[in-house]
Amino acid sequence: MNKTTNRFAPEVRARAVRMVLDHEGDHPSHWAATVSIAEKIGCVPQTVFEWVKNAEVDSGRRAGVPNEMADRLETLERENRERRLADEILRKASAYFDRVDGLTLASHSCSPRGFLSDKEDRHEELRSDW
């Protein structure tokens, strides 16, 4: 769906499309029928032409990607972008924490108690500076 506001209700669109297709034979060309119907509903002919074209694609009368498929494709592409972004964030976080864990293990003894006592000593040093 386009990003502009839809001024006409779906029922009006469907009726305009039906009228253009029904009255095509009464006019010298497809465009003439489109212009005639557009004037009756109060919009520009290009708008009605797009509605008719989309309806023909959706019904299989014209080549193209139906709106339902295009919407589904757009949704899937958005989900893929979000997943790739989440994967990148997780990959970077994992690399960061692996590096931090490696530094922690290398600078302290492997026992958790040794690590805590080193931290407590540092806190005592900081408190005594006050």
How would you characterize this protein structure?
The chain is mainly α and 130 residues long. The protein has two domains: 10-64, Orthogonal Bundle (Arc Repressor Mutant, subunit A), CATH 1.10.10.10; 72-129. It is 76% helix and 0% strand. The protein has five helices and no strands. Helix 1 packs across helix 3 (45-59). The protein is rod-shaped. The model has no long low-confidence stretch (mean pLDDT 82).
Q: Please bin the fraction of helical residues.
A: over 70%
The number of helical elements comes to: 5
Q: What shape does the CA trace take?
A: rod-shaped
Average pLDDT number: 82
Number of domains: 2
Q: What's the number of extended β-strand segments?
A: 0
- C-alpha termini separation: 64 Å
Oligomer: single chain
The residue ranges in which pLDDT falls below 50 over 5 or more consecutive positions are none
Structural class: mainly alpha
What amount of the residues lies in strands? under 5%
Order of helices and strands: HHHHH
Largest sheet: none
Using the CA coordinates, give the radius of gyration. Answer: 33 Å
Topology:
Layout: H1 10-22, H2 30-41, H3 45-59, H4 67-107, H5 112-129
Helix pairs in contact: 1-2, 1-3, 2-3
